[in-house]
Amino acid sequence: MSDRTTSRPERLVLMNPGPVITDDRVRSALAGPDMCHREPEFSELMTRVREKTTRAAGGDERHTSVVLTGSGTSAVEAAVASAVPADGALLVVDNGHYGERFQHIAATHGIRTRHLEFGWATPVDLAAVDRALAEDPGLTHVGVVHHETSSGMLNDVAAIARIAHAHGRQVIVDAVSTVGAERLSLAEDGIDWLAGSANKCLEGAPGLAFVSAARTAFEGLAGGPRRTYYLDLYRHYTAQEKAVAPAFTPGIPAFYAFDAALDLALAEGWQARNERYAGLARQLRAGLERLGLELLLPADQRAAGLTAIRIPAGSSYQELHRGLRAEGFVIYSAQEKLAKDFFRLSTMGRMTTEDIERFLAVLARLLPARS
Q: Class assignment of domain 24-268?
């Protein structure tokens, strides 16, 4: 056995914003039996997962979910490509990397957009959203990110949905890194299309994503454009709802794991999970500030699951990543416009207060000495 193997930390703490540290029961579920996806056993598993996913997204008997084998991006793209009609257009609400992603997805599928770019880590101006919808009656949908993980900012998607509905428009919400741990509800907030992922706040394994919406909304896709084959939501909905079978070969082990993770998420409830994540975030942020580090956002704009931190003078992200990885911690660089000056730390998943305490102690040793 090599020295590299023997010196590896026993516990690897994933402080990247997904995939997250999972519960032992979720990891064990990945070793479920081999299964044919065209047999009744998988139909039962898929149906259970769809029903639990809808509840986790705050849906009621009016709603359902389509589960896709893919990353969270696949769900966002499926929603945009399928929901916006042939003569429709998308208002893109952009205050970070993932808001900008709506713009790229729409452009890929030839969908007209109006791009409201507020700037990274800048709160959304609700009045500007209202004005844009009033000025352009051809905008049929609004695309907005709930948790903009490029900065850690939480956007008020419920308020944006109210504005959209006042103008008779629908809203597509990227809830990939919030569903399960932040306040968000299909039924209570009137979210028209919610895109999510198994492997962030729902603490499942990577490989599955989902779109949740009203059953009538899925049925309404029948006459819509077929812009994509694999990500056509109507194709997946009719297969999963009518034939009770997947449209294509699914990631069966990820379904096993997601089934177990959803049981844990529903038993804990989003409020308790939010407080668990927020408690870890408070511990982390207080420790970072004691070390003299600067946080990107003011407290009232931060999500519970992520914190962006300025890289301290005299250090670099590469040095911090290397030193922390050697001690069993995986951190995450910032993206594009923020990459030069910031890095990110997640408090999603099965992290503990002991993990945070040890992380802060290791980080303190790695920081440059201050004069």
A: alpha beta
